[in-house]
Specification:
The protein has 9 helices and 16 strands. It is of the alpha/beta class. The chain binds aspartic acid.
Length: 332
């Protein structure tokens, strides 16, 4: 019998009535009804009962430790949490955990007391994936609406739709049909770079540019921050007047150039004028490639936690190489 450990963290799947209280893990599992998890040995960890917007770095560091320890016992893993930050939890686990057994993150878009609540179906599909040895070694997976997504690619794309999770530019790896996972595509590589750590004390800022931005938020980035992710325009462009301030910042802390568009990779040499991606990379910024800003922030956070900074500066080549690896640019 396959063993699956379910970590419940709260979120909409447990938000009966919509107030601040969240159901217990036992109540969430009970929503499955009789027989659904019948062929499985399911162990429950009632880990947190929070809206996912209130999960802290400390919560996620503790979760990653427990997931790694659980995998070492031979169990598959399902993490159940709110959808608002689900893609960040999934990607962080993807960076920190190997997947000798499947690790699946799921949640729900409709509260359990509303018509058409999707929590039980998502949980049942996630359990099926976590119990299937054929879904091991794919990196951390996200399962909702019967679709199986790679944590590295998936994003929440809609505030209310039950099919909110999508992998722009790639699509899902597979789906769950009649309760059985069917993997159609395999990722070119997995994200875990070992040994990566996650230190909750590291601080990485995320600044999104908007038209006419004068850079006041960049000016306010004082020594509290160890790194910056810039969600820039288009394929990695900034106003000409921000190039010098960004170069000064990049001389002190790693500055990763990502795109605010929501899909596609940052470029490296298509545009070469002032404020272009070519100029910014030449001035010391690091390309995020296809990683969206929130995921780029978590990758930079783990790299800085793992020794990519020192009192004399930071390891720009090492960080650049790690981004290339995780985004597939470095895959053979
Ligand atoms: N969607 C929210 C979340 O991500 C719902 C909540 O507040 O529980 O957790």
């Amino acid at each position: 019998m396959h063993r699956v450990t379910v970590f419940t963290l709260g979120g909409t799947i447990s938000a009966r009535g919509g107030d601040a209280s969240r159901m217990t893990g036992t109540e969430v599992l009970a929503g499955l009804g009789a027989g659904i998890a019948g062929g499985l040995d399911v162990e429950l960890r009632d880990f947190r009962r929070l809206p996912s917007s209130s999960l802290s770095f400390e919560d996620l560091a503790a979760l990653a430790d427990e997931v790694r320890a659980t995998l070492a016992t031979g169990s598959g893993v399902v993490v159940v949490q709110g959808t608002d930050t689900l893609e960040e939890t999934a990607f962080l686990l993807d960076l920190l955990c190997e997947t000798p057994q499947p690790v699946v993150v799921t949640g729900a878009m409709r509260r359990p007391d509303l018509p058409g609540a999707d929590g039980p179906a998502n949980l049942a599909a996630a359990l099926a994936v976590a119990a299937d040895p054929g879904c091991a070694g794919l990196g951390v997976l996200v399962v909702l609406a019967d679709e199986i997504h790679a944590a590295r690619l998936v994003r929440k794309t809609h505030t209310t739709s039950v099919t909110t999770f999508a992998s722009p530019g790639a699509g899902p790896l597979g789906s769950v049909v009649e309760g059985e996972p069917r993997i159609l595509l395999r990722p070119a590589g997995t994200s875990a770079i070992h040994p990566l750590r996650f230190d909750p004390a590291v601080r990485v800022a995320l600044v999104t540019l908007s038209l006419g931005d004068r850079g006041e938020l960049l000016d306010d980035l004082d020594t509290r921050f160890d790194g910056l992710v810039l969600a820039a325009f288009g394929a990695g462009h900034v106003p000409t007047w921000l190039v010098d301030p960004l170069e000064r910042l990049a001389a002190r802390i790693p500055v990763v150039l990502a795109s605010r568009t929501g899909a596609g990779a940052t470029l490296t040499h298509t545009y070469r004028g002032p404020g272009s991606e070519h100029e910014l990379l030449h001035r010391g910024l690091i390309p995020a490639g296809p990683l969206d800003p929130a995921k780029a922030r978590l990758l930079l956070h783990t790299l800085l936690s793992t020794g990519a900074k020192s009192t004399t500066g930071y390891d720009r080549p090492g960080i650049t190489a790690a981004f290339a690896h995780v985004t597939g640019a470095g895959l053979a």
